[in-house]
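Board notes (copied after class):
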Amino acid sequence: MAFCSPLFSPVNFAVVPKHTKPNYRRNFTISAIPPLSTAITSPLDGTTIAVLGGSSVAALAAILSLTDPERRRQIQAEEVGGGDKEVVREYFNNNGFDRWKKIYGDTDDVNKVQLDIRLGHSKTVENVMKMLTEEGSLKGVTVCDAGCGTGCLSIPLAKEGAIVSASDISASMVAEAQKQAQEELLKAKDDLAPTPVMPKFEVKDLESLDGKYDTVVCLDVMIHYPQSKADGMIAHLASLSENRLILSFAPKTFYYDLLKRIGELFPGPSKATRAYLHAEADVEKALQKAGWKIRKRGLIATQFYFAKLIEAVPA
């Protein structure tokens, strides 16, 4: 999942109408999406916080200093007998699965925030599909969808002819993705087109992934990794890819970090995993260390969802 918090900011990609359900999975078409920047970073970084007065920032800092989110996280880890990974696995196999299945789906049983996150995530998927198809057909191209969730990306990739290996740490997510893929890919079959190759779904964490692929995609998963572990995860994903690596992550800026900390003042049952933000410079440094460079970058933002999307290639 990507970081979500009350926020309004410019959207750098195609906008999905607010009152229209995204249909990127069932009837995917390439829409006119402005190209990702190849040279500049988002103008949003480090500036938006200016809307808060100095006294407001000071007051927030004082309140935040009295909270103890780390203690809550420690209790969560103790309850499942492990660290971040075990907490994430437990969450997405239980309450988190029910919540995110609704967000990633097309049910009307979502609130305003969940609908907004759904739209934001759909924009991420749309832009990934745009990047992957703009250079040619995906027929026969091998793609690793690392952290596949309910198959939001794996299914449209298979419809475009890609050979998809999809995995997730959550067995519940993998089962749902496989179910939806069977329903949608078989339904899409007609007499004039070949049957899409079913994605290969597996229950695996990122560290357990192996093999070689033309392209590796990992969307909204880095939020579960501190930067110290994210560096190794990025290097591992890069080692699996031969030509292209696409990542999305919650960007770490002063403004976004403040929003995250404000959110920790109001813990609820749906906020059951630790959220890590990542500075784009740190992600780029990890890629460079692995022998890769960023070719495209952009920011996807709605009111409650924001994610940095980058495409990297061998340097």
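Comment from the instructor: The CA atoms of residues 297 and 310 lie 4 Å apart. The chain has ten helices and seven strands.
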